[in-house]
Specification:
Layout lengths: L1 E9 L8 E6 L7 H11 L3 E6 L8 E6 L4 E2 L3 H13 L12 E5 L2 E10 L2 E8 L5 E5 L2 H7 L7 E2 L6 E4 L3 E7 L2 H6 L4 H7 L8 E6 L7 E7 L4 E4 L3 H14 L5 E9 L7 E10 L2 E20 L3
Parallel strand pairs: 2-3, 4-6, 12-13, 14-16
Antiparallel strand pairs: 1-2, 1-18, 3-4, 4-5, 6-7, 7-8, 8-18, 9-11, 10-12, 11-12, 13-14, 14-15, 16-17, 17-18
């Protein structure tokens, strides 16, 4: 069985930046075990597998795998898959519909293509689920899990907490860019306090007005085989929703430019938005640009 794939750098306009993604353009005939094995072989943060939609009104069914586990929803895999289908196509034809609708474990994901003139340069997605805020996590636990001191964690805006728009993450603010750069994941503490079924990983962020962004972030998910992720759309879309929900204004459109991957040498730029009406969060979105990188074939036994 010959399978065609493409790789895309997501949340960047420069090759070798952003978060790399592998897209299996037509995954028909693959078992779940084979998909997991292929994702482990690519060993990227995520690999996606495009299947025919169950509902013909939708664009595709998309399954998302880290090197160790399947994800119900993720940001950069959706953005990159939409870009790949719009610019390269699957085995039958280039996907020309806009918006695209992907069937995923977390629900239906809508993606609007981002264009420059007539050229597709990226995509923007709406979260498949409304924001939910789960448990608060002690600052001391987050600090130890990330090789920091508890005094590095900023709690004036919110306590470190689990939040989700389709995939759960711990969201924690740190006080300085220096603390953010010093963070290192401690896998044994993730195992002890943040089991994989409780939270995908920890997103640390800090205010960064020195650069032309609003926030800078890092995300660690060692239990999913991702020691650090260059760009995490599913965590940052939840962060935008959380920050909007905490603002006092009853009506608000919050737009955030978020840098991630800088300390990894894979600088990424994510554009997040959250809307609030009558004190209720009405939607969250994340988007960015993409760069095509490689195309190839993978041959496996049927």
């Amino acid at each position: 069985m010959k399978l065609h794939f493409a790789t895309v750098d997501v949340f960047t306009e420069h090759p070798f930046g952003g978060n790399p993604l592998a897209v299996m353009l037509d995954a028909r005939g693959l078992t779940t075990a084979q998909m997991q094995a292929i994702a482990a072989e690519f060993n990227l943060a995520e690999t996606t597998f495009v299947l025919p939609p169950r509902d013909p009104a939708h664009t595709a069914e998309v399954r998302i795998f880290t090197p160790r586990a399947e994800m119900p929803f993720a940001g950069h895999p959706n953005i990159g898959t939409a870009f790949a289908l719009a610019t390269l196509g699957n085995e039958e034809e280039r996907i020309a519909s806009d918006p695209l609708l992907f069937e995923e474990k977390a629900g239906l994901v809508r993606l609007d293509l981002v264009k420059d003139g007539g050229s597709v340069i990226g995509a923007r997605l709406a979260a498949p689920q409304p924001l939910t805020r789960g448990d608060d996590i002690a600052a001391e636990i987050i600090a130890r899990a990330c090789s920091l001191n508890a005094r590095d964690i900023e709690t004036s805006g919110h306590a470190p907490c689990i939040a989700s728009c389709g995939a759960p993450f711990v969201l924690a603010e740190v006080k300085t860019r220096t603390a953010l750069a010093a963070a290192r994941p401690q896998t044994e503490l993730f195992l002890e306090h943040l089991a994989a079924d409780r939270a995908t990983g920890i997103l640390l962020y800090t205010r960064d007005e020195a650069r032309d962004v609003d926030l800078e972030a890092r995300m660690f998910a060692p239990l999913y085989g991702v020691p650090e992720d260059p760009a995490t759309g599913s965590a940052n879309i939840a962060l935008a929703g959380l920050l909007a929900s905490l603002r006092p204004e009853p009506d608000l459109v919050l737009r955030l430019k978020i840098a991630q991957g800088v300390d990894m040498g894979r600088p990424s730029l994510l554009e997040a938005m959250a809307e609030k009406r009558g004190r209720e969060l009405t939607g969250t979105w994340i988007g960015g640009r993409c760069v095509p990188m490689m195309r190839g074939t993978l041959e496996i036994a049927p």
